[in-house]
Design a protein that fits this description.
The chain has one domain: Muramoyl-pentapeptide Carboxypeptidase, domain 2 (2-Layer Sandwich), CATH 3.30.1380. The strands form 2 sheets. It has a 5-stranded mixed β-sheet with strand order 3-4-6-5-7, with helices on one face. The longest helix is centred in the first third of the chain and has 18 residues. By secondary structure, it is α+β, with helices and mostly antiparallel strands. About 30% of the residues are buried. The termini are far apart. A hairpin with a 3-residue loop joins strand 5 and strand 6. Helix 1 crosses helix 3.
Length: about 130
């Protein structure tokens, strides 16, 4: 169930609700976001601090971002994490794989990581 939140607060030690809620309406799916952040905490220990570019998205914001109809962002199971260099991209993908992420999208400035319970590992790029 999607909720609209008023106040920012910690979801885990290093991730706050405000960095993962929908930027247009502050919509969230708390239980999935918390599960996602718990997995990202494990990644952070091997990668270092992360900046979230996108977390939960309402349907309108997802359309504005060009997101897919069944995007995991719509249910709070995905985060796009900012990267600045090729080395950052490599190190983050390596840390995500090491910590059990099985669905990873690679973009020029972000890495998409989601916790969809897929039986088939998937790695894709956003490059044309």
């Amino acid at each position: 169930m999607t909720a609209i939140m008023e106040g920012d607060y910690p979801l885990t030690k290093h991730f706050r609700l405000g960095e993962l809620w929908c930027p247009c309406c502050h919509g969230v799916q708390i239980s999935n976001l918390r599960r996602l952040c718990l997995k990202l905490e494990c990644v952070r220990s091997g990668y270092g601090p992360m900046e979230i570019a996108s977390g939960f998205r309402c349907h309108l914001h997802n359309m504005e971002e060009g997101g897919r109809t069944f995007s995991r962002h719509l249910v709070g199971k995905a985060a796009d994490i900012k990267v600045w260099t090729d080395g950052d991209r490599y190190k983050l993908v390596q840390a995500l794989l090491k910590n059990g992420f099985r669905r990873i999208g690679i973009g020029k400035t972000i890495i998409h990581a989601d916790i969809e319970e897929s039986t088939i590992p998937v790695l894709w790029t956003y490059y044309p």
